[in-house]
Amino acid sequence: xxxxxxxxxMMMGFSAIxxxxxxxxxxxxxxxxxxxxxAKVILTSNVRIQELARLLQAIxxxxxxxxxxxxxxxDETYFSLFVETSKQVDQNLNLLLEKQSSxxxxxxxxxxxxxxxxxxxxxxxxxxxxxxxxxxxxxxxQKYIAILLDSLDILISRNHSSIEKKMVGIESITxxxxxxxxxxxAVTLFAAxxxxxxxxxxxxxxxxxxxxxxxxxxxxKFEKILVSSHYEIxxxxxAVNDMSAKIxxxxxLRTQMMQQISHELKTPLQAMQSAHDVLKISNSVxxxxxxxxxxxxxxxxxxxxxxRQYFDFSKIExxxxxxxxxxxxxxxxxxxxxxxxxxxxxxxxxxLELDFDAVPRVMVDPEKISIIISNLISNAIKYTPxxxxxxxxxxxxxxxVQVKVQDSGIGINPDEISNIFTRFYQxxxxxxxxxxxxGVGLAIVKAYTEGHGGKIYxxxxxxxxxxxxxxxxxxxxxxxxxxxxxxxxxKND
Length: 493
Prior knowledge:
Elements: H1 6-73, H2 76-99, H3 103-123, H4 131-218, H5 232-280, H6 287-318, E1 326-328, H7 330-347, E2 351-356, E3 362-364, H8 366-382, E4 389-396, E5 400-407, H9 441-451, E6 455-460, E7 466-473
Parallel strand pairs: 2-4
Antiparallel strand pairs: 1-3, 4-5, 5-7, 6-7
């Protein structure tokens, strides 16, 4: 079976449309030509016959008048006029005979010619001196004249009927042509739309499959993309599949490498932490040395945190991150996180508050939700000056349940908001604070939130603080949890 390329399909579709248009146009032109020919026949033949017949009636009347005057006065002048008029009658009868195509009308004209010849022959007789002869000749003349005029009336009547029939035929052809033209236009339009839909479907369906496949790749699912197409898009799908396989191999290698690095870092960090703890409780360590040990402790903690976060982010990018989902009360997850952040906030005299309304339970991984909220609160405290304020609130939203973290910190430039979730990105106003971060925390927040099927939003402006909102979907028909009173945690608790 021949496999058609997209180009061949498009050319076949357009060729079919063009062919239908040509055939329909040719048919319409043919029918219009038939109408034109019919009108031409009526105008050039039937109408001319009507004119000749009516002209002949007038000539015959003149001829009859000259014949009557000649019979009364026996004046040769009238006879000469009669002879000239009779020649005109003969000429017009011959023209009528030439114009007629109907055998009945031709036979009628032959009879008229015979009657006229008999009239002329009768008028050419010289013996018409007695009154009886004149009366007889008058009767004969009127008989022939009546034959001629009656025949012309019949001819005119027949020709009039013929014109009416032909006009009805032309009207019928015209109406039929219009109907056929409209039908052909409708068929052409339908064929064009059908061909366009088929061609579009042929192109867009495999492209849609390809887009879905690439979206899965972007989310870390490196499944082979199967498209219902051949040649161009199939080749593109093969190229994407090859790329996907290579990316998967690279991600697996990177994950293995990060696992190895994390493992290699964990052992010396644990040893350093153990040594730090032993030295700190030792009686031989001086106060000045304890401060140095605290510096070592913070450094160890930063390295361990960064190692863990980067390793988690690598697993997210590789699509191997596992979510242990369970139906949970979000306030019960957030409250301990806020409580733990209380001491850090108090060290900067930052007022930390937690408020929540009645919300339904959500299907989440509690550990990762804790990381999301912890990173948001940590950032809020970090970028908020002393004596500032951070408010954590929980409430319902269109998607389900949302957690908002609002601070009174240094804020973010609007044109940088779209970049803050990029790994290792730091805002340009980071110099306003004395500390810096790893640039991985918000990237993990976004990845974990989307891993739960949720969404994250940011509202911020320089020196006006920032508002981070994370939303999580709920199961259908989940009841709201009753809340007795909002909880507030601050530096005065």
